[in-house]
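If your schedule permits, I should be very grateful for your opinion on a structural question. What I wish to show you is a protein chain and, alongside it, a tokenised description of its three-dimensional fold. Would you kindly read the sequence against the tokens and tell me how you understand this chain to fold? Here, with my thanks, is the record as I have it:

===
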Amino acid sequence: MNDIDAYVWWLVGAAALGIPLVVTAMPEFGMLAVGAVAAAVAAGFGLGTVAQVLVFVAVSVALIAVVRPIAARHSAQRPRLATGVDALKGKQAVVLERVDGSGGRIKLAGEVWSARALDTDRTYEVGQEVDVVDIEGATALVI
């Protein structure tokens, strides 16, 4: 085993850390693998074992300290692209059948929807354009 250079052992360690990265999808293993590659580079430059371990620890800890909070912040954000019924809120629709507080029909995004006036005293006549405020089940609330 003395025939193999230290940088090879660090690269083997980096590959070994890459396996649980792929299996568990924990990015921390990838950061440790990058630390091992940095230690392999340090070994390639002829630094001693203590310096190699210090490079491994410093790079790994720095990556975990910097990258993890950024990744956590990005994963906690809601997607900017609204999809599903959220994408329909705020859209305009055309009244197909009279809409009042008890119901009616509108054409929204190319589809026919049941609708109800948000203000129960208001009535919207056929052909009138309305704004979708919310979706409750399969009924659009309009103003």
The mean pLDDT is 92. The chain has three helices and five strands. Residues 49-76 form the longest helix (28 residues). Residues 69 and 80 are 20 Å apart (CA to CA).
